[in-house]
Amino acid sequence: MELLKFLFVAIVAYQVSSLITESSFPVFSWLRKLPYLGASLFSCVLCVSVWMGWFSALFIYNPGQYLNIEPVQYSWFWSGFVYSFFAWTAHLLEGKLYNG
Fold this sequence. Notes:
The chain is mainly α. It has helices at residues 2-22, 26-32, 38-41, 45-59, 75-99. Helix 1 (2-22) crosses helix 4 and helix 1 crosses helix 5 (75-99). 24% of the residues are buried.
């Protein structure tokens, strides 16, 4: 059951990262147009997936609690990078599938 929770949250982190970086929807497009932060923080899938991974690990599901990662108080930090890894891998696979 824990694996399904992890996969679900990883897919959600990837989808939200893709929406923020590639969507033309006005709610997200203004983020990319911010003068200093927009071009660097909200236009790259890898950057946004790190923020989404940390958010997901803090508030939705933290797999580090169940893997006995020491110290536990920092497990959300590393779990965020794990979510980011899966989101970036999914982004690369999606690009390879569509571009051949």
